[in-house]
Amino acid sequence: MSGLIIFIIVILIAVILVQLGRVADLASKIRGEEKVASQQNDRTAFWLVVFMVVFLIFCVVSAIYYKDMMLGYGPNLAASEHGGKLDSLFNVTLFFTGIVFILTHILLFWYSYKYRYKKDRKAKFFAHSTNLELIWTIIPSIVMTFLVVKGLMVWNEVMPDVTPQDEVLEIEALGYQFAWDIRYPGNDGKLGTREFSKIQPGLNDWGMDWEDEKSQDDILLTGADMIVLPVDTLVRVRITSKDVLHNFYLPHFRVKMDAVPGLPTYFIFRPTTTTEDYRERLREYPDYQVPADPEDPEGPQRWETFEYELACAELCGKGHYSMKRILRIVSREEYNEWLAGQKATYFSSIRGTDIDPFKGQLLGSEIKNRKRELNAAFTNALKGDAEGDQIIRLDHVFFDSGSSTLKEMSKYELDNLAGLIKTNNISVELSGHTDSSGDDDANMKLSEARASTVLQYLLDKGVSSEMKAVGYGETKPVESNDTEEGRAANRRTELKIISK
Ligand SMILES: [Cu+2]
Questions:
Q1: How far is the CA of 249 from the centre of ligand 1 (A)?
Q2: How far is the CA of 322 from the centre of ligand 1 (A)?
Q3: pLDDT tens per residue, range 28-72
Q4: Could you give the CA distance from residue 202 to residue 199 in angstroms, rounded to a whole number?
Q5: Homologous superfamily of 364-499 in CATH?
Q6: To 10 degrees, the CA torsion angle through 14, 18, 20, 25?
């Protein structure tokens, strides 16, 4: 309905304008053409100048009024160290183009006014002016050169690679249709080797070289896991792609780099504002003081739910939009805490599976860990006075199923144990325990035989302290025998310190 009314109004205004034109025509016939034309020229010229002034004021006022919508102003301040430098390039360009914009408009309208038609005045024609050509070639080239050189200088500041002296956190982003996977270097701070020939879909999508010790503590963040980075830390992102061209884009940090299949690229930036601080900053702006969810007016406001985003800025396919991931910038302490809670992918999902190159072997780090654990248990047992304190469970002593033959892997634990008994010179009881399945007598015999095997191993290693081997069969369960986990816990070898 309102559409129809507007349409009718437009038609009526058009009719009025045509009628006014006719009236003016008639009037000019009555008063004499020339005089009227000259008056009209004066009036038009005057209004052109008025229009120019109003228009320029409008441009300047609106630019100031809407400045919070521009990069580098209000809520759009950069959250990285180099971001401000990139934003300042826009300001420099705006300054020069602004001068040109205002000058050309003033000249355009002022000349229309000054050189409006006058009866006794004739235009001067000239075909060529070298001076003018020089002026309008040289000035723009100087300005352009300045803009380009300034841009290059900022580029050179933002883009150099890290040097070995830099303290840098290097992570890797792998883009594919349609997600980003992120790799963290783990405790050693180094990303392990990858190789395309090692890629196995579903098993090793990254083509990780698990034989490389640097790879073993790497953390792969897949799916929707939040990316977390520490504030005020130099971050180098190695950017790769598995299929087509993607683009690693962190708008709030002014980070944007193509992810090219087969050609790793990188971007280095230092986040300067935590997510929490950025929210506090947004809190001051009315645009962010509205409910985040319009359906829920009582819910949190926009500034409270703000998150940094990682997006793909390349139209890489129909699921392109879904490559968005949330990025959190936190304090150093929070980051360390978060990192400690992440599991190294190798140990959480590769170790012991068919694609583990070290299946059936112990890794150097595991040997060290076991030694540390046993030492700690021993120290506790020697300190403790209560009955149960003197018992140490030997978690890494294994036998072949149903037999008393030691598995090869048990030697690490037993060698450590032999060393500890020798240095502390204590007398001990070695005991074997089984679960409740099977015949009671057989269980008793098996546990005795296993305890004796351990004793013999320690004797062979030159332990001369007083030692005895006892089999308890299924008589001393530590867990219920009704579940598989319980039974596994009950099948065990223990050491008890008898005298210190
Ligand atoms: Cu993409």
A1: 10
A2: 9
A3: 777 777 777 788 888 889 999 999 999 999 999 999 999 888 888
A4: 9
A5: OmpA-like domain (3.30.1330.60)
A6: 160
